[in-house]
Amino acid sequence: MSDTASLSMIPPAPEGFRSGFIGIVGRPNVGKSTLMNLLIGQKVAITSPIAQTTRNRLRGILTTDTAQMIFVDTPGIHKPHHELGKVLVHNARMAITVVDVVLFVVDGSVPAGRGDAFIAELLARQSTPVFLGLNKVDLRNDETAAAVTASYQSLATAQGWPVAEFSALTGAGQSALQTQLETALARGPYYYPPDLITDQPERFIMGELIREQILHHTREEVPHSVAIAIDCVEESKAITRVLATIYVERDSQKGILIGKRGSMLKAIGSSAREQMQKLILGKVYLELFVKVQPRWRQSRLHLGELGYQREE
Ligand SMILES: Nc1nc2c(ncn2[C@@H]2O[C@H](COP(=O)(O)OP(=O)(O)O)[C@@H](O)[C@H]2O)c(=O)[nH]1
Ligand SMILES: [Mg+2]
């Protein structure tokens, strides 16, 4: 995977080529990041059953012979409880205003709720075209499916939004969705080189892969208090050496992350290392450190240092 977009690699677009930015928005946990990974064909966004897994706006790029679709994965829109939450929700709302098309993703296995109605209202107030995407249709049963669809259909018809149904997990409905989105885009150039799949540097994704393993290995209070800094990446022919620091807010969290005689940190490190090897297609040596940084989520300064900037 290439690190940065190099302008010289961008070819002229063929006749009739379409391109644009598609914002993926919705409540936490509806499958936005899973869907983006499916659409671009590689894991660049981490996913987990825990709400608020995605913290940064992340672009995933799908280039075909006829179009370039740049998907913008966003943190879920929810009611924020701390400074980090405020920055995340603000950035998700900002994303809505700068994209060409919004794909509003909902959990299509359960009926529409108040959270969806809140986002629908937000979207109705601006002029960007919206598609309503019902995800997780693999979880539906025949008895309730019609009623569930109807609950979203009423949201969509009120605004004139087209509806698509799919499963980000199984891939059902993917190509129909892709075609629908492509036709909604205007004629345009390549914004990125055709072989690039994300705008984020490899380092960022490495940090995210570590955070993902923490989400999978630890419980409730720890994951949300964690930030990762990649301190050093040294590439040699045989192996890539990565040193990273995991920041937590309290000593107790540090204890949990390290585990009995280092067992937890070892488990996290070895799973993250495997994921990184898939990312860079080579051998990785990973060393993890844990440091306490009290109340980093409340501090604008620390948020900035750890990569969570407010976007204007
Ligand atoms: N059964 C099922 N699970 C899904 C689907 N899409 C996502 N998930 C799961 O839902 C959880 C949240 O997914 P994620 O992509 O992190 O949601 P996000 O917060 O909206 O980005 C994860 O455990 C996913 O594996 C789907 O289509 N079907
Ligand atoms: Mg996500």
In a nutshell, what does this entry contain?
The chain has 312 residues and is α/β, with parallel strands linked by helices. 36% of the residues lie in helices and 21% in strands.
Structure description:
The protein has 312 residues and is of the alpha/beta class. The chain has two domains: 7-184, Rossmann fold (3-Layer(aba) Sandwich), CATH 3.40.50.300; 202-305, K homology (KH) domain (GMP Synthetase, Chain A, domain 3). 36% of the residues lie in helices and 21% in strands. The chain has helices spanning 32-40, 83-98, 114-124, 142-159, 174-184, 202-217, 251-258, 263-280, 300-305; strands spanning 18-25, 58-63, 67-73, 101-107, 130-135, 163-165, 227-235, 240-248, 284-292. The strands form two sheets. The chain has a six-stranded mixed β-sheet with strand order 2-3-1-4-5-6, with helices on both faces. A hairpin with a 4-residue loop joins strand 7 (227-235) and strand 8. The radius of gyration is 20 Å and the shape is globular. The protein binds guanosine-5'-diphosphate (GDP) and magnesium ion (MG). Magnesium ion (MG) binds next to helix 1.
What would the keywords be for this entry?
alpha/beta, GMP Synthetase, Chain A, domain 3, 6-stranded mixed beta sheet, 312 residues, 9 strands, binds guanosine-5'-diphosphate, 9 helices, binds magnesium ion, Rossmann fold, single chain
Sequence-ordered SSE layout with sheet pairings:
Blueprint: E1 18-25, H1 32-40, E2 58-63, E3 67-73, H2 83-98, E4 101-107, H3 114-124, E5 130-135, H4 142-159, E6 163-165, H5 174-184, H6 202-217, E7 227-235, E8 240-248, H7 251-258, H8 263-280, E9 284-292, H9 300-305
Parallel strand pairs: 1-3, 1-4, 4-5, 5-6, 8-9
Antiparallel strand pairs: 2-3, 7-8
Helix pairs in contact: 6-8
The structure holds guanosine-5'-diphosphate and magnesium ion.
